[in-house]
Every structure is written in C-alpha cells, then in structure tokens.
Specification:
The complex is a heterodimer of chains A (244) and B (225).
Chain A: H1 2-66, H2 73-100, H3 103-125, E1 128-133, H4 141-162, E2 166-173, E3 177-184, H5 191-196, H6 201-212, E4 216-222, E5 226-234
Parallel strand pairs in A: 1-2
Antiparallel strand pairs in A: 2-3, 3-5, 4-5
Helix pairs in contact in A: 1-2, 1-6, 3-4, 4-6
Chain B: E1 11-16, H1 20-31, E2 36-42, H2 45-54, E3 59-63, H3 71-81, E4 86-91, H4 96-104, E5 109-112, H5 117-128, H6 140-148, H7 164-174, H8 179-186, H9 190-204, H10 209-218
Parallel strand pairs in B: 1-2, 1-3, 3-4, 4-5
Classes of the chains: A alpha+beta (244), B alpha/beta (225).
C-alpha cells in the first residue's frame, strides 16, 4: 500500500517535472520568437524611415545645390564634389536600408530576394554560388524572412570564416516539407571543439530561426573538407503552441 | 541631352510632394529654366487636385506616395477631367510597383528622385511635347515590368525594321554594356557603335538607354539567356 502511494507520488513528481520542463522550453521559444519579431519590426521601421524620409531630403538638397549659379571654376568644382557626395550618401542609405530589410523580399518573394543576395555576394566577395531551387515554394512573409536571415547568416559565415570558393545552395520542396541544403568547399571546422567553446551569436541566431520554422538543422563540418548544413522544415506553418 | 531650343512657350508646371525639402529643391531646379513657369505646389494629392482645378498646368511633377491622396489616385482624377495634362511621377528607387501603377494611371513618364536637374528639365520638356519619358536610372527589373505592364503608349502601326547589326547592338545594350564594351565585343569603333545607337534610338523613338531596353522587351527583340 505504502509502496503504491509512494510510487504514485514519484510518478506524479516526474510527470510534473516533465510538464514544467516543457512549459519552460515553450516559454523560452516564445520569448525568442517575440524578441526576433520585435527586432524585425524595428528594422522594418528604420528601413522605411530612411527610404521615405531621409532619401527625399538628400535628393532635395542635391537639386538645390545644382541650382546654385557660380561664376568661378573652384566654386563649380566644389558644387560638383558636393553633388557627388550626396549621390554617394543616397547610395549608402539605400544599401543600409536594404541590409536592414531587403525591399525585394516583401515585394517579390524569397526566391527573387535570394537571387539578388547571391548575385550581390558573388560580385562583392568573389565567391561562386550555385543556387538551385523548386519554383513553387510558398511561404508566409514571416517565414520567408526567417529563411532569408538563415541564408544570410550561412553566407556571412562562409565568406568570413571558410575561405570557400564555391557555395552550393539547394532549396527543395517535397510533399509536406522544405529542405535547405548548403555545402561549401572551404576549410571547415571542428564541431566538437566549437561546441565546447559555446555557440557564437550567429550560430545561436541560426538555431533560433530554425526553431521558429519548426525545423531541424544539422551542421556537418570536417576540417579542410568544407561545411554542410541541412535544414528541414514543414512547408505549412505549425501553431507553435500546439506542439511540444 | 535633347535641348529644345524651339520651345518658346512657357511650360506651366505644378509640383506635388509631401517633403518640403524636396519640393524646395525641385522649385529651385525649375526656377533656373527660362521656359518653365512654376504655377503651384502641393503637399498631397488632394491639394494637387484643387490647384489643378484652379489653374490648369501643362505638366505636373508629382510624388507617387503621399499622405491624404497618393499620386496615382490624383492622376486618375486629374486625367478624367483634363486628359491633355502631362503627368510625371516621382519616386524613390526600388519602388517599381508604384511606378507601374502610376504609368497605368496615365502618367507620361517617371523620374527617380535622385535624378539630376538636367534630367528633370529634360523630362518636363519631353512630356510637354507629348512624348514619353523613362528615367535614365531605370533598373533592369523595372524595364521588364514596364514592358509587360498595361502601359503601352507606343501604338505605332508600322513595324520597325532593324538590321542584323542593330539587333546585335540592342541585345548588348540590354545586357547593360557601354558603347566602349560593345565596340570591343563586336570589333567596331566606339564612334560606329554610337552611330548605331543613335539610329536605334531614332527608330524606337527612345530618349535614352532605358527607352531602348523597354522597347526591346516590348518588341520581343531582347531575349534573356
């Protein structure tokens, strides 16, 4: 009798431990999600302000400068220099706004946005990117953004750390899931060693975004053999509260 | 640039933009032109509509995105009443969708806000003469979007004939090569390429490279690899 009571208590204790653990995981995930959404909203707001407010002001100033009438050579030189600087500022502002939130992502979707990102990267960093994908990948705008940020992070790591010459990116759709597969021919790293040192901020972000997509991510890397990343996630949104 | 010496008549212009600084810059730029007369400025579409009713302009330069009433709705309303007014949309870069809406609403051209003073003047004079104006800084994406949009001002009956050489050059222009690069590629002199380019522009009635690219798409001459 006593054993049965004790047993029940122990089982109840373990069950509630597990339940608490699950609630904690869920709460933590919700917190991360809220943080990421706040961050993205802020980025969107700043990008829009730069684009809609600062842009026209700079353009107005440039026009005003262009209308100055100066009758000496050095004055004219200075005016044309100032115009050049304003153009440069507009260009930089455009890049900054685009880094915060690529306009193309919202307007033309993930595939077009990735295309542009890769073309830009090839041009600036000289890395060769082979991109193959399924045309009919459809994602909500929030999930598109997560996927885009994941690829941005992977690209960033590849360029910064791997010394790779080629990066292969595949985005495929099967029945109910979407797979992202990337592989570089860089110098790779020791995963064991890396995990002992603790995950860097970039890696943590990568995993948080993967979690937000309800996906599983695997990173395989061997020193001097390159790095491979696989991410599988359901093609349809899951209610993050109903799982776990 | 096409300077229009023969235009003696004053081009009466109204501008609309919600940014005071930009409007001021635009005003200054237009003020330096003798044949352009600025007759009003508005901060939104509704105010623009009111000004147009009071004082009919020849040309309107209007921002596309504005509070209260945007440039697209304002243009539709204005053109319903006065279809002979030429409207030029002003927009920031990468606002392709809005530019297309503006052209489909009846605008005769568009300018990106970082355009030079000379280009703005050129655009005003061009649309005043009843032609269309595409901004010099038109991106490849936008050119493609314009060519597949409902905006089709080039309803010319006769077919335009191009020589083999011209077709080759159009192809390279669309691939964003400069005259010099085209010359090197085709083993021609830069002068010869310039000559061909002018001829192409004339045949297409295009004012700049953007015009050539848009027409090439429209005519089905340019095929992307």
């Amino acid at each position: 009798m006593a054993a049965a009571v004790l047993g029940t208590i122990v089982i109840y204790f373990i069950a509630s431990l597990i339940r608490h653990q699950r609630i904690n995981v869920k709460l933590n995930q919700e917190k991360v999600e809220a943080e990421i959404i706040t961050l993205e909203n802020e980025r969107r707001r700043i990008a829009a302000d730069l684009h809609d407010e600062v842009g026209p002001m700079l353009s107005g100033i440039k026009l005003m400068i262009s209308s100055l009438e100066v009758d000496n050579e050095s004055g004219r030189d200075r005016i044309s220099k100032v115009k050049e600087y304003i153009d440069h500022s507009i260009q930089r502002m455009r890049e900054i706004s685009n880094n915060l939130l690529p306009a193309v992502l919202e307007k033309r979707g993930i595939l077009e946005a990735l295309h542009q990102l890769f073309v830009e990267c090839q041009k600036v960093h000289g890395i060769m990117i082979q991109f193959s994908y399924d045309e009919n990948i459809m994602l909500s705008s929030q999930r598109q953004l997560h996927l885009y940020r994941i690829l941005q992070e992977i690209l960033h790591n590849t360029i910064k750390h791997s010394e790779a010459r080629t990066l292969r990116v595949e985005l495929l759709k099967s029945n109910k899931s979407i797979s992202l597969y990337t592989e570089d021919d860089g110098k790779g790293f020791d995963i064991q060693d890396r995990s002992q040192k603790g995950k860097g901020l970039g890696m943590r972000n990568l995993h948080s975004r993967a979690e937000l997509l309800s996906g599983n991510m695997y990173i395989e890397s061997v020193p001097s053999k390159g790095t491979r990343i696989t991410l599988n996630f359901p093609s349809h949104e899951q209610d993050s509260l109903s799982k776990s | 640039m096409n300077r229009i010496a023969s235009v003696k008549a004053d081009v009466r212009v109204i501008i609309a933009d919600d940014h005071v600084i930009f409007r001021d810059g635009l005003k200054q730029a237009l003020a330096s032109e003798e044949n352009i007369l600025l007759i009003g400025e508005a901060a939104d579409g509704k105010e623009l509509l009111r000004l147009v009713m009071e004082n009919k302009p020849d040309v309107i330069l209007t921002d596309i995105r504005m509070p209260v009433m945007d440039g697209i709705s304002a243009s539709k309303k204005i053109l319903e009443i006065s279809p002979d007014i030429s409207i030029v949309g002003l927009s920031m870069f990468d606002d392709e969708g809005h530019i297309i809406d503006m052209l489909e609403a009846g605008a005769r051209g568009y300018l990106l806000k970082n355009a030079d003073k000379a280009e703005i003047i050129d655009a005003v004079n061009t649309v005043f003469q009843g032609e269309f104006y595409y901004c010099k800084h038109t991106s490849y994406t936008l050119a493609k979007m314009i060519s597949t949009s409902k905006f089709n001002p080039h309803k010319r009956k006769e077919k335009i004939e191009f020589s083999e050489r011209e077709l080759e050059i159009i192809q390279l222009i669309c691939e964003q090569l400069t005259n010099k690069e085209i010359a090197e590629k085709l083993y021609l002199s830069t002068r010869t390429v310039e000559g061909h380019r002018l001829k192409i522009q004339e045949k297409m009635q295009a004012k700049n490279t953007a015009g050539i690219v848009i027409m090439a798409f429209k005519l089905g001459i340019y095929h992307q690899d």
